[in-house]
Automatic annotation (TrEMBL):
Residues 18-23 are annotated as: Involved in allosteric activation by GTP. Belongs to the UMP kinase family. Its EC number is 2.7.4.22. It catalyses: UMP + ATP = UDP + ADP. GO terms for molecular function: ATP binding; UMP kinase activity. This is Uridylate kinase. Allosterically activated by GTP. Inhibited by UTP. NCBIfam families: pyrH_bact. Catalyzes the reversible phosphorylation of UMP to UDP.
Length: 239
């Protein structure tokens, strides 16, 4: 029995790069694809939003002197590369997958159309949303929150690279950092916790979409979350 029937899985670009932290590593992506397939086999409808930080970060480009909008568009293209790589791995193990981009590039992916995305999900296809929101100045966290609201997802699963939840400080730097089991979206905003940007948090709060933050690097964690096991940090409500 699954707790969540339709999910949006947010996968960071760094998670696709493995320990290298940069670039696209097919063996790493293949392992993630297997985890996704295990959940797909349960009958869960899965939409995925990929980050692009393993290839390019718009904020980094802006800090180097690039015009911010231009740098962000480059980041959107990075998410398309990641989406295509993940699609390939999923289809290699028999999971039907569609990539939809918010910026049209019809030769390689479908344009984002909400009703078509929902239809794909109903037919048992995994849908990968690439290209961010299609607008500069918005992160892929905001994309995940926006698409979750649009397709009426039950939850956003925030798959972190080596971090098993939300802490009051960086657990890699502060030995006494305390992990939260549950929070509200308002807590995230008020405490300034580094989970997702404030736009994404507000959007999730306004649309009452729960968020589960968990470690992607532990085997079977996606399935465990979908089946309702209490791992990571769950963020709800807060209005």
């Amino acid at each position: 029995m699954v707790k969540y029937k339709r999910i949006v899985l947010k996968v960071s670009g760094e998670a696709l790069a493995g320990e290298a932290g940069f670039g696209i590593k097919p063996p790493v992506i293949a392992e993630i694809a297997k985890e996704i397939k295990a959940v797909h086999d349960l009958g869960v409808e899965i939409a995925i939003v990929c980050g692009g930080g393993n290839v390019w970060r718009g904020e980094t480009g802006a800090e180097m002197g690039m015009e911010r909008a231009q740098a962000d568009y480059m980041g959107m293209l990075a998410t398309v590369m990641n989406g295509l790589a993940l699609q390939d791995s999923l289809e290699n193990i028999g999971v039907p997958t569609r990539v939809q981009t918010s910026i049209e590039m019809r030769q390689i992916a479908e344009p984002y159309i909400r009703r078509k995305a929902v239809r794909h999900l109903e037919k048992g296809r995994v849908v990968i949303f690439a290209g961010g929101t299609g607008n500069p100045y918005f992160s892929t966290d905001t994309t995940a929150a926006l698409r979750a609201a649009e397709i009426n997802a039950d939850v956003i699963l925030m798959a972190k690279n080596g971090v098993d939840g939300v802490y009051d400080a960086d657990p890699n730097k502060v030995a006494t950092a305390t992990k939260f089991d549950s929070l509200t979206h308002l807590d995230i905003i008020n405490k300034g916790l580094n989970v997702m940007d404030s736009t994404a948090s507000t959007l999730s709060m306004d649309n009452d979409i729960p968020l589960v933050v968990f470690n992607l690097n532990e085997a079977d964690n996606i399935r465990r979350v979908v089946e309702g096991e209490n791992i990571g940090t769950t963020i709800r409500g807060g209005k």
